Amino acid sequence: PPGAGTTFLCHGLDRHPDIYIAKPYIPEAKVFMGPRQRPEVYRARYSELFAPARDGQVLGEKTSYYLENAEALERLREIVAGARFIFLVREPAARAYSNYLWTRKNGLETLSFDEALRLEGARPSPLPPERAYARPHDYLSRGSYDVFARRYYEAFGREQVAFYLYEALVANPEPVVGRMLEFIGVRREPLGEL
């Protein structure tokens, strides 16, 4: 989810010689977000994003919206059914407040945090319809990790989906990243200062 340290994590993982993370990290690739496309459109976008990768590298994409978006999940299952998914989640209240601060910084929020929470779900999005997935005023509902996790486990199985805590990554990155590397299927290797 947004505000959970995914950019920080991508910088670290991309240092591994056996991993290539699609650039740029910001703005995110969002390959499977927005209106539905034909499968070849998604494949062409991936070909473009991963063109600089070397043969044999594990390929990764950073898009924080995939976890909460059921339509993206269906497209992922259709196009990249064998992929592994790493989700970095943050304590829900801290994530909600971080989301709120980001929304204010970007001029999409004028209410106090308390008022914004009170009106969650009752305000229209200020974004155009093709960006409806961003849901800038959905602060608490975007922390429903149990619902989102269940969808991914049902679609891909637990062997393809892993969740890690942002707070654990920040507090002690080396063991958390080590477990991620094992999950991805590459050797553990120090990635330097994260």
Keywords, please?
4 strands; two-stranded parallel sheet; 194 residues; single chain; mainly alpha; 8 helices
Helix and strand topology:
Blueprint: H1 6-13, E1 19-21, H2 39-49, E2 58-60, H3 70-79, E3 85-89, H4 92-105, H5 113-118, H6 145-156, E4 161-165, H7 166-171, H8 173-184
Parallel strand pairs: 1-2, 3-4
Helix pairs in contact: 3-6
- The helix content is 40-55%
SSE-based structural type = mainly alpha
Strand content: 5-15%
Give the overall pLDDT as a whole number: 92
Identify the strand order in the major beta sheet: 1-2
What pattern of helices and strands is seen along the backbone? HEHEHEHHHEHH
Radius of gyration: 17 Å
Number of helices: 8
Backbone shape: globular
Residue ranges: pLDDT <50 for 5 or more in a row?
none
Largest sheet: 2 strands, parallel
Distance between the termini: 20 Å
Q: Count the E strands.
A: 4
Report on this structure.
The chain has 194 residues and is mainly alpha-helical. It contains 8 helices and 4 strands. The strands form 2 sheets. A two-stranded parallel ribbon has the order 1-2. A two-stranded parallel ribbon has the order 3-4. The radius of gyration is 17 Å and the shape is globular. The model has no long low-confidence stretch (mean pLDDT 92).
